[in-house]
Every structure is written in C-alpha cells, then in structure tokens.
Design a protein that fits this description.
With 204 residues, this protein is mainly α. Helix 2 runs antiparallel to helix 3, helix 2 packs across helix 4 and helix 6 packs antiparallel against helix 7. It starts with a strand and ends with a helix. The protein is globular. The model has no long low-confidence stretch (mean pLDDT 79). 67% of the residues lie in helices and 8% in strands. The protein has one domain.
Amino acid sequence: MMRMTIHPLFLPILFSMVLYGNVSYYALILSSLIIHEFGHILAAYFCKVKVERCVIMPYGGEIQLKGGIALSPKKQLIIALGGPIATLCCFLVIPFLDPLLAEPLIKIQLVLLAVNMIPVWPLDGGRIVLSFILMFYPKARLFEMYLSVSLLLTILTIIITFIMLPKTLFLLVLSIFIFIKLVSEWRYRKYRLAFEKYVMNRLT
C-alpha cells in the first residue's frame, strides 16, 4: 500500500500560516499540492507502475516508484507530466469559485506550476527534460551529467537569491532545499547507474 507523508521542512511553513491566521490559505496550498501529486499517481497508474511512497514537499512533492530510473524514459515522461497537468486542471474550476477564493487559488497554482517546471532535477521540469533526452539518447551516464548541470544551476540560483534578499527569501530557502536533495542524489549516483545498466543493459 502506498504511504503519503509530509516532509518535516514543510510543517513549519504550514504552522506559521495557521499561527498568523491564514488557515484558508494553508488549506488551499495543501490541497493544491495533494492534487498535483495525485496527477503523478494517476499517471503512474496509467503506466502500470506501482507508487510505493508519496512525500509532500515545499515545492510540490516526490513519489517513489517501483523501478525508479530503470523505468523506460517514456513512462518517466508521462508520470512527470501528470503533476503539472493536474495543476493546470485546477484552473478549470476557478471560474465557478467565489472571487475571494479564486484569487489566492490562481496565485498558488501559478507559483506551483512555475517552480515545478524549472528544468532542474528533481523538479518535474528536470524530469521531463531528462526523459526527452533519454528517449533519443539512452545512455545511463547522462543521468550523472544532468545531476551535475542541476547542481551548478542550483548553486547559481542560491548565490543570486542571496544577493537579492529579503525579496527572494522563499526562493533562497527553496533553492537550498533542492540543493540538499541534489547532493543526496549525487552521493548515490554510482549505485543508480550500476543498477540501471544491470536492469536496462545500457552502455556508458
């Protein structure tokens, strides 16, 4: 059975919103994130891929799939697109909502969509770009190369957002969080590459 949890870093953000009386805004953000992840889960179900775990993150979420990066690039692409498509579907109900609810909901969806489509791993944009690359050039070493590019772009973003503080505080915190995730992924890249070569029989 799939497990759904909330990342510890996301809890202080939600708690601060409740503390300052933004309970409705907190509910909209959490609902939007769950809908976004449900899009990924639905896409995985369509591809007949088992979802073992789903974690709600500050930028969206992460799902752990059975098979991981050993899945075909086409399946990875469909699953990565599932979240943004679900977020876009939220815009369909906005015209039927009260303006007091519709306005913050639009802002949340736009931010969620903009952040997730940044072409950096592990965001949806990064997964989509990498899936396209692997579809036409299926080499396991490309995963390591894309991690390197993502690390460099994230470090550059951290430097820029730090210089532009305090206006970019949210982006700075988000960039640091993504950097930590990338470092963790980088440490296990050799194991992932070896596993992929064994399962998919790809050459480096």
